[in-house]
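quick q for whoever's on today - can somebody do inverse folding on this one?? i tried earlier but teh output was garbage lol. tokens:
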């Protein structure tokens, strides 16, 4: 059996693997949902923890599912994989004949398979069509199509809000100027060069100047933030008492949503103190297990640079006698 989290020819290293397994506690047995299966590294470790553990893996990328299916085949019927979006978790559970689960994991990052595939257009390290869709079979528009359709103001808003890029207006202006000149931005190299020209680049820069813009457009085209809070709340509802939830995020917007949603589900009201009654939906349903987000060790960050921005938040579903 391959080592947990490192199957044969694995092209990636699962982020925060030890910490994720520790908080999910799969040795308890039962059904665990890996809502963003990717290449199956986390699921492999969960299944290896106990012969009583089962995994329902969900991913919207069929290429990743095919890899994970080969990787996890030796676990047999203990592992079931489904092509779906993590937001479809309730439907997937119903169709699988399941009602409640022991744990839910959502690793919100781009998989190594997606990031390293030149044809997918996620990285400016390869010159490729600007696609960035996680589900290439969908009829959703690509980043190139997005940039060809949106107004300058809307492009600037996306880059500023999702990428926290201060030069978003200048980047958007150059994109639209190029489009109006009959040369729309259609490849990763074209976008990276344009952003570098707009932002500038210093030798001391830790990251490529196009990193934030690529992140923002990827989030927009895949609607990554849409429904995340609802997914977390639904996951908590589907957990059995003492069940665990882990969310791994890779940028501040995702982490902020996870933090606020879990706080609300732990009973912290976000309403104005002057409000006559709570309207934010706060309820005491979970105990937050991570007072601060768990981040990679220096050793992990050095061995796997893509893990550096990862943040893990975990919670435990309270039993009926613990809830107010």
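ok took a stab at it. sequence:
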């Amino acid at each position: 059996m391959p080592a947990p989290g490192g199957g044969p020819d694995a092209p990636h290293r699962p982020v925060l693997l030890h910490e994720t397994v520790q908080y999910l506690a799969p040795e308890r047995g039962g059904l665990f949902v890996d809502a963003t299966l990717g290449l199956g590294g986390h699921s492999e470790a969960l299944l290896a923890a106990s012969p009583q553990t089962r995994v329902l893996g969900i991913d919207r990328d069929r290429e990743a599912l095919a890899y994970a299916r080969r990787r996890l085949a030796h676990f047999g019927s203990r592992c079931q994989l489904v092509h779906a979006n993590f937001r479809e978790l309730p439907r997937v559970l119903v169709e699988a004949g399941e009602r409640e689960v022991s744990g839910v994991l959502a690793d919100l990052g781009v998989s190594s398979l997606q990031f390293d595939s030149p044809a997918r257009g996620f990285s400016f390290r390869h010159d490729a069509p600007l696609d960035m869709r996680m589900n290439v079979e969908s009829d959703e528009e690509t980043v190139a199509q997005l940039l060809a359709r949106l107004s300058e103001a809307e492009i600037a808003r996306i880059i500023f809000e999702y990428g926290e890029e201060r030069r978003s207006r200048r980047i958007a202006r150059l994109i639209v100027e190029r489009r109006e000149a009959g040369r729309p931005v259609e490849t990763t190299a074209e976008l990276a060069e344009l952003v570098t020209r707009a932002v500038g680049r210093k030798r001391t820069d830790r990251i490529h100047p196009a990193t934030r813009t690529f992140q923002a457009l990827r989030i927009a085209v895949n609607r990554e933030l849409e429904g995340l809070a609802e997914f977390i709340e639904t996951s908590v509802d589907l957990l059995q008492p003492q069940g665990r939830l882990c969310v791994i995020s890779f940028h501040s917007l995702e982490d902020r949503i996870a933090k606020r949603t879990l706080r609300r589900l732990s009973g912290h009201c976000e309403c104005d103190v002057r409000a006559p009654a709570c309207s934010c939906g706060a309820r005491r349903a979970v105990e937050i297990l991570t007072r601060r987000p768990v981040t990679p060790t220096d050793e992990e960050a050095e061995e796997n640079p893509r893990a550096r921005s990862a943040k893990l938040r975990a919670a435990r579903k309270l039993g009926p006698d613990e809830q107010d």
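fwiw DSSP finds 13 helices and seven strands in the chain. also Confidence is low (pLDDT under 50) at residues 1-10. so keep that in mind when u check it
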